[in-house]
Amino acid sequence: MFSPEGPTLRELAVQALSSVERGYDLLAPKFDHTPFRTPDAVLDAVGSALGRMGPFGAGLDLCCGTGAGVGVLAGVCRERVTGVDFSAGMLDIAREQVRSAGPPVSWVRADARALPFAPAFDLVVSFGAFGHFLPRELPALFAQVRSVLRPGGCFAFPLVAPPRPGSLGYWMLLGFDTVMRVRNALWRPPFVMYYRAFRFGDVRRELARAGFRVDLHALPEFGPRRDGSPRVRLVVARLPL
């Protein structure tokens, strides 16, 4: 799963026994060599889909990590792009390696549950970060996203179809979540990272309650599942004008 440039098992163990913030500070120098980084294929597909909907003015990458999603925003936003994350280590790496030939890019350290922005963005994206939020936190999280969007603004993120029950992918995710729950029952501080906690039915309901109109766009680059449904969708939640 990890390249030779990625973290060792010992490093992963130390990170997993830390807080989420401290764990990502430690992981940051090698994060892009782990499966936790959003694959380029997903970033490119989302960029293409947003390009057909744009252009946009100002963009925000929520929980930006090392900045991979900021490159997507730089391709579809004309005014400016901001990356926000609560890990100082991840932001340090992002500042070093992200270069934009388009709009100016800035980096802000903040918690996604307490964003320090006025309604100044036209597009908010997020890639692979929602496993760090418990279901009960979604209303507050989506309220924060709404608070930083201008009227008519858009909140977009990719959503991979869940693996079929009984499949290898299903058991791998179930096993990972089980290990994390046992870890959090025995060790403090907790490390919230649950891949099966972000269920689309709950997400759609909470987005609607926050005032968004939700649409789904298939990302054709990933093809259909056996039942004909898309393997990957782009969730596009819009505010009224």
Structural features:
SAM-dependent_MTases_sf, SAM-dependent methyltransferase, 21% strand, 37% helix, alpha/beta, methyltransferase, transferase, 241 residues, 7-stranded mixed sheet
Short structural description:
The chain has 241 residues and is α/β, with parallel strands linked by helices. The protein has helices at 9-16, 20-27, 40-53, 68-76, 88-97, 138-148, 168-186, 200-209; strands at 56-62, 77-85, 105-109, 121-125, 149-160, 213-218, 232-238. It has one domain (38-238): Vaccinia Virus protein VP39 (Rossmann fold), CATH 3.40.50.150.
Which band does the percent of strand residues land in? 15-25%
The CATH topology is given as: Rossmann fold
How many helical elements?
A: 8
Assembly level: single chain
Which CATH architecture?
Answer: 3-Layer(aba) Sandwich
What does this 3D model show about the protein?
- By secondary structure, this protein is of the alpha/beta class.
- 37% of the residues lie in helices and 21% in strands.
- A seven-stranded mixed beta sheet has the order 3-2-1-4-5-7-6, with helices on both faces.
- Helix 1 packs antiparallel against helix 2 (20-27) and helix 3 (40-53) runs parallel beside helix 4.
- The protein is globular and about 45 Å long.
- The mean pLDDT is 90.
- This is SAM-dependent methyltransferase.
- Residues 60-153 form the Methyltransferase domain.
